[in-house]
C-alpha cells in the first residue's frame, strides 16, 4: 500500500527507509513521521516529545493527530494478525524481499 | 510540555467520540467475559513486565497478545484451549487487548495522559455463538477465509468494535482502495507510519 499510494501521488518512495531510518523515504515529512512512529511504539518518551515537536513543525497539528491514530491502528492490527494466524500472502512476501526481510 | 504540544493534546477530533464510547463499553460484559474480566485486561495490556507464566490461560493470552504477539504460534493457541480457554474467548481477548493498545497509543501520541480503567458494569456475557464459524487456514474460527477484516468473525461484537475503531483511526474498510485519501496525512504518509509501526513490532504482515 505504501508503494502503490506513493506511486499514485507521484512520489518516488524508498521502501528501505522503513527499516533503515538513515535513508530518506522520499515522502513529505517522511523522516519526521518515521521518528515519531518509532518513539511512540517503543515508548521512548524523551524522543517522543522531540519527535512530536518536529512533526508539528514539519506538517502541522492535524498530521500529529493522524500519525498517532494510524500508529494506534497498526498496533492493534499487528497484534490481530500475529495472534490469529492470518497467513502472509505472496505479494507481501515480495515486499518483504524489497525490505531485506526475506532472509 | 511546550505550548504547541498542549494545543495538539487539547484538539477535539472526530476520533475522540468513537474512543470515548469504546472505552466505556470495555467495562460492560462482552460475549465471553464479564465487565470485570474485560477491565482487568487494561492493566495487563499496560504492564510490560506481566508474565505469561500464569495459571490462568486468559491472563497468559492477554499478556502474550499485548507484549509478545510475534511469539504466538498455532501451538500456543492450541495449548491455551487445552488449558480451558475456549477459542472464541481467546478471540475476544485479542480484540479487546488490541483496542486498548490502539487507544493508549493514540492518546500518548497526541500528548495526552492515558485513560483511567473504565468503570465495571454488571451483567452476564452474551455467549453468542456463530455456528458458521470454523477453523480454516488461521488459528481461530472464521466465517470465510481468514484475513484482517475477518479474524474476529467468531465474536461479532468484537469484530464490529474493531471495524469501527479501524475506521476512526485510519480508514474504513470500504475506503482502503482509495490511494488518494487525505486525513491529516496523505495516504502515502499514512502508509509510511503503518509500515514503520509494523517493522518496529516485528510484524511482517
Q: Any low-confidence stretches of chain A, pLDDT <50, length ≥5?
A: none
Greatest interface and its participating residue counts: A-B, 65 and 74 residues
Low-pLDDT stretches of chain B are none
Name the assembly state: heterodimer
Largest sheet of chain A: none
CA-based gyration radius of chain B = 17 Å
Mean pLDDT of chain A: 86
Number of strands of chain A: 0
The geometry of chain B reads as globular
Radius of gyration of chain A (Å): 15 Å
- How much strand of chain A? under 5%
The run of helices and strands of chain A is: HHHHH
Strand segment tally of chain B: 2
Tell me what the structure shows.
The complex is a heterodimer of chains A (103) and B (205). In chain A, helix 2 packs antiparallel against helix 3 and helix 3 (45-59) crosses helix 4. The relative contact order of chain A is 0.11. Chain A has five helices and no strands. Helices cover 66% and strands 0% of the residues of chain A. By secondary structure, chain A is mostly helical. Chain B is an all-alpha fold. Chain B has a two-stranded antiparallel ribbon with strand order 1-2. In chain B, helix 2 (14-26) packs antiparallel against helix 7, helix 3 crosses helix 6 and helix 4 (57-67) runs parallel beside helix 6. Chain B contains eight helices and two strands, in the order ααααααββαα. The relative contact order of chain B is 0.14. The chains are: A mainly alpha (103), B mainly alpha (205).
Amino acid at each position: 500500500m505504501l508503494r502503490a499510494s506513493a506511486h499514485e501521488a507521484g512520489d518516488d518512495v524508498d521502501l528501505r527507509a522503513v527499516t533503515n531510518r538513515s535513508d530518506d523515504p522520499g515522502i513529505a515529512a517522511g523522516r519526521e513521521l518515521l521518528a515519531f512512529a518509532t518513539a511512540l511504539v517503543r515508548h521512548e518518551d524523551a524522543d517522543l516529545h522531540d519527535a512530536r515537536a518536529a512533526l508539528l513543525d514539519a506538517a502541522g497539528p492535524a498530521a500529529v493527530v493522524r500519525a498517532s491514530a494510524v500508529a494506534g491502528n497498526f498496533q492493534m492490527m499487528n497484534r490481530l494478525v500475529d495472534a490469529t494466524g492470518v497467513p502472509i500472502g505472496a505479494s507481501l512476501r515480495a515486499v518483504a524481499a524489497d525490505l531485506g526481510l526475506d532472509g | 510540555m511546550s505550548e504547541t504540544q498542549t494545543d495538539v493534546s487539547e484538539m477535539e477530533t472526530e476520533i475522540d467520540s468513537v474512543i470515548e464510547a469504546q472505552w466505556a463499553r470495555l467495562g460492560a460484559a462482552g460475549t465471553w467475559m464479564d465487565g470485570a474480566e474485560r477491565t482487568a485486561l487494561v492493566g495487563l495490556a499496560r504492564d510490560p513486565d506481566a508474565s505469561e507464566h500464569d495459571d490462568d490461560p486468559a491472563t497468559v493470552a492477554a499478556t502474550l497478545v499485548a507484549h509478545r504477539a510475534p511469539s504466538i504460534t498455532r501451538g500456543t493457541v492450541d495449548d491455551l484451549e487445552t488449558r480451558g480457554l475456549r477459542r472464541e474467548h481467546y478471540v475476544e481477548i485479542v480484540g479487546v487487548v488490541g483496542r486498548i493498545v490502539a487507544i493508549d497509543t493514540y492518546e500518548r501520541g497526541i500528548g495526552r495522559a492515558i485513560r483511567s480503567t473504565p468503570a465495571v458494569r454488571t451483567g452476564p456475557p452474551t455467549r453468542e455463538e456463530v455456528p458458521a464459524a470454523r477453523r480454516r487456514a488461521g488459528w481461530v474460527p472464521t466465517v470465510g477465509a481468514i484475513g484482517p477484516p475477518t479474524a474476529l468473525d467468531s465474536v461479532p461484537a468484537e469484530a464490529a468494535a474493531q471495524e469501527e475503531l479501524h475506521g476512526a483511526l485510519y480508514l474504513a474498510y470500504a475506503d482502503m482502495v482509495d490511494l488518494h485519501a487525505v486525513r491529516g496525512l496523505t495516504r502515502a504518509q499514512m502508509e509510511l507510519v503503518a509500515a514503520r509501526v509494523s517493522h518496529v513490532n516485528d510484524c511482517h504482515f
